[in-house]
Specification:
There is one protein chain. This protein is mostly beta strands and 73 residues long. It has one domain. 5% of the residues lie in helices and 34% in strands. A hairpin with a 2-residue loop joins β2 and β3. It is extended, with a radius of gyration of 16 Å.
Length: 73
């Protein structure tokens, strides 16, 4: 059992819990592995960075939410 203490309304916390998650894939570029959600047209949105190097998280093109072109990899 887990207890969540928050001032955020329960409706906001549980929003989207019943929806299926978007399909993702792993993409490697220059030693950096990203989990991305494909958007079509060779574009993808970064979901998360799969790295232990803190410098990888500071790159603007690899931050979660960034839109990247998959044809450049």
């Amino acid at each position: 059992m887990m207890v969540l203490y928050t001032v955020v309304p329960l409706e906001d916390v549980m929003e989207g819990i019943e929806e299926d998650p978007a399909a993702t894939m792993e993409l490697s570029m220059g030693g950096l592995t990203l989990e991305v959600e494909t958007l079509g047209g060779f574009r993808a949105k970064v979901v998360r960075v799969l790295s232990t190097d803190p410098a990888h998280f500071l790159r603007p093109h690899s931050q979660p939410g960034a839109i990247i072109r998959m044809d450049t990899f």
